[in-house]
Amino acid sequence: MAGGAGLGPMASFLEALPGRARLFYGERSGSLQVDRGFLSRLAPGAVAVTEDGSGYGLRGLATAPLEVALGKDPRPILACGPPAMLAALASLARRNSVPLVACAEARMGCGLGICLSCSLPLLDGSNLSVCQHGPVIDGLAVDWGWPGD
Length: 149
Ligand code: FES
Description:
Layout: E1 2-3, H1 7-16, E2 24-27, H2 36-42, E3 47-50, E4 58-59, H3 63-72, E5 77-80, H4 83-96, E6 100-103, E7 119-121, E8 127-129, H5 130-133, E9 136-138
Parallel strand pairs: 1-2, 2-3, 3-4, 5-6
Antiparallel strand pairs: 6-9, 7-8
Helix pairs in contact: 3-4
The chain binds FE2/S2 (inorganic) cluster (FES).
């Protein structure tokens, strides 16, 4: 699952493992989408979604077609995108009993684990510094502040 600029890291993953994953790509609007031909070459069969329906693909949230796909074929989710998307994916992953590997976006001040500007709260009450322990993390361990977490 790639949300917005989260497509960059997912592109590297898809190129490294061609044909092994299905891409769900969400953007707010069509003006933010990558070129359709690029997406087709990168990930044949990718599902593109825009929130406002102004681009190619489906209208709505990319989690909706992902949920349908997970219902038919549960698989681990690898995701990069904004926190709200990762929060929704954590709920989705729990409902479908699949892992969520998240590439977390965070503002970073020091990059040394000192300033805590990149800190994420975990469900066990501790915190995780994305600069020290990420950016790839167990998305199910994070308290995304989402109902149902
Ligand atoms: S950027 Fe300062 S603790 Fe992570």
